[in-house]
Amino acid sequence: MSWKTIIIQTDNASAEALSEALMEQGALSADIHDAAAGTDQEQPLYGEPGLPLGEVWRKAEVSGIFEHDADLDAVMQLITKTLRLSDTPSYRKGIIEEQDWVRLTQSQFNPICISSRLWIVPTWHQPPDPSAINLILDPGLAFGTGSHPTTQLCLAWLDQNLQRGETLLDYGCGSGILAIAALKLGAVHVTGIDIDPHAVKASYANALLNACESSRCSFASHYPILTADTDAVEQVDVVVANILSNPLILLAPILTRAVRAGGRIALSGILASQADEVLSLYRPWFDMHIHAGQEDWVLLTGTKTTDV
């Protein structure tokens, strides 16, 4: 079985309307992407939870996938008429052949070497170094394959800094990769928190894959510090939060309280241009600094100097 695809060249003013028009004309799916993706003119866009994305790419492409018997030229004529366009937008057509999509997706994720002793190994691969600390991972529907720079920055920091016997909170745990890494690196107990139920499910499944003792880990969609009885919360030695700068700013009082006096915090998901704002919010309680960077992302870390 195969499908037909149509790719329309447009701009940020018309992209959304064309995407909706494709769906109205029977597209199975529609997508807006950067026309310059993969070139020197590629334009990265970043969004924060709760904030509008703003404009799309200045030069965009809108693509739609249709059944194999669709008349794409007729579709474009109808879209031109429906949107009252003076001319039919420039477009090209293609064929998408049926593939083993599971294998194709898996082929994009190979084992990742974080350090000489720490590897991320997808479940469909054999560990390249059986003697290393291998994080066996199936992300499922959760964030955290280990391929993103923000995750790798956190893993490298844990590998270098986590002490055996420490407790850890992974706020925004996703696939559970950081919490599980902490257990394998010697943490005595970890707690993973994520508002996405798929993430909680994936974290438990990955903990099982990695033979983590259930008594040493817990994953949930809420944290007791959010309740009125905050004095009952047992603080941890280390907090890691690989999310984005906006929630890290909003969560500063919660994450700060979760760290014991003298404990440490590691914040990731932060663009270099956003670092100063995040640092300024945490510095009243932590000796904060930029620990490392990768591509456009930075990892901020600090030791708690003032208890709250």
Automatic annotation (TrEMBL):
Its EC number is 2.1.1.-. It catalyses: L-lysyl-[protein] + 3 S-adenosyl-L-methionine = N(6),N(6),N(6)-trimethyl-L-lysyl-[protein] + 3 S-adenosyl-L-homocysteine + 3 H(+). Belongs to the methyltransferase superfamily. PrmA family. Gene3D superfamilies: Vaccinia Virus protein VP39. GO terms for cellular component: cytosol; ribosome. Keywords: Cytoplasm, Methyltransferase, Ribonucleoprotein, Ribosomal protein, S-adenosyl-L-methionine, Transferase. S-adenosyl-L-methionine binds at residues 151, 172, 194, 242. GO terms for biological process: methylation. This is Ribosomal protein L11 methyltransferase. Its main location: cytoplasm. One of its GO terms (molecular function) is protein-lysine N-methyltransferase activity. It is found in: Cytoplasm. It comes from the Bacteria. It comes from Nitrosomonas marina. SUPFAM superfamilies: S-adenosyl-L-methionine-dependent methyltransferases. Methylates ribosomal protein L11.
